[in-house]
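JOB MANIFEST
job_type = single_chain_structure
chain_count = 1
residues = 458
[input]
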Amino acid sequence: MPEALLDPATLGDLLRVASASDYGRWEDQVRRTGGCAGPSRLRGWVLHEDRTTGETLHHYSTEKEPGGRLRLACGNRRASRCPACAWTYAGDTYHLIRAGLAGDARRDIPATVRDHPRVFATLTAPSFGAVHSRPDRGVCRCGTRHGNGDPALGSAIDPATYDYAGAVLFNTPAGQLWRRFSNRLRREVAARAGLTQRELKERARLSYGKVAEFQERGALHFHAVIRLDGPGGPDTPPPTWATVDLLADAIRAAAAHSYTSVSVPAIEDQPARTFRWGTQLDVRPVKAFGDGSEITEQAVASYVAKYATKAAENTGTLDRRIGELSELDRHDVPGHTRRLIEACKLLDPLYPDRRLWAWAHMLGFRGHFSSKSRHYSTTLGALRQERAVYRAAQEREALGLEDTEPDTVLVLADWQYAGHGHTPGESVLAATIARDLQLNRETARDALREQLIDEREC
């Protein structure tokens, strides 16, 4: 951010931090967090001792750190809250999804998984009324040809007739609707293979990884990688009858089946509703890298990773819980999104178990944004543990303990939480550091991509 745009207080704080004698160490801490926008601050100490001799191998205290604090990354997955930590989360999601498509020897997922039937499916919400859109051909129903980025896109053409209550009541049980779909999908696969469900478990297994996305109209839909394996998961070959066409046909049948629905009872002035997936179902086979297809392993993994760090913010809602409706005025929330939030407020007393007002900032949805079946691939926890082990090894090397057996070292520590976040000036500097790190990553990624292209051409 240019200094000319900073208010005097922020600029003064920025100059204070940048001119401090310990700025170099502060910058080093922020770089270690990846440029985190809201780091946790700790105070305390850690001591490494030899278990046998009692010799002090290393001692660290935050007393000599800037402000007497150690800064750790917040780990927030939302890009709207912390782009730096969201980048890490997106990277983990990318590797998780791609491992289930292309295999990963480091995580015991064989490359032969590429030969298994796998598709990229998108299940959308039903219609709750006409909205402004950009159809591939022609003009919007309102008679206008909207440009890209038009703020009217996704909003109701006629707010008076749009079913805002239905929209938020659909978002709330969307996770339950997915479970019903996945259960029905197994039945449909078994039926096409001429098997019972019990027999299917002995011959094949369905695995998936999915992510939720909010459309501009505020309705939720799911993107999912769905794969057919042998009975043991990704390391066992699927039966000969398991094909992409069979899987795609089963997905369409499962999405349209009457079992794949969720009912909401009538209460006071609200009618009974039965929700099903919308008619805009998209199922495409996932191809290998370099075959000319747009739906490649890398493209699908990148697409899922991108939406794993987002929530409903693209509709203009807030990225935190709302205390009062007056907050919407202060944050200039668009009219269509505001009506969805107001619907949550109005319906909350009628459906107390759904906690609509508590989740009004999510337009009623309170499920997991990304999830996977057990045997799809690795887990986010396993990826974080790999990173922790790697960093621990780096730390041992930096401390000169790499030749010392871990079991012979006694670690004593005392840590206390001392707050979170940056001062205004620190926030500006941290954002600059985060941009520098991102630029370096993009440069390295472009160089690697060019190298891979050159190798294929050779």
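[summary]
The radius of gyration is 26 Å.
The chain is about 40% helix and 15% strand.
exit_status = 0
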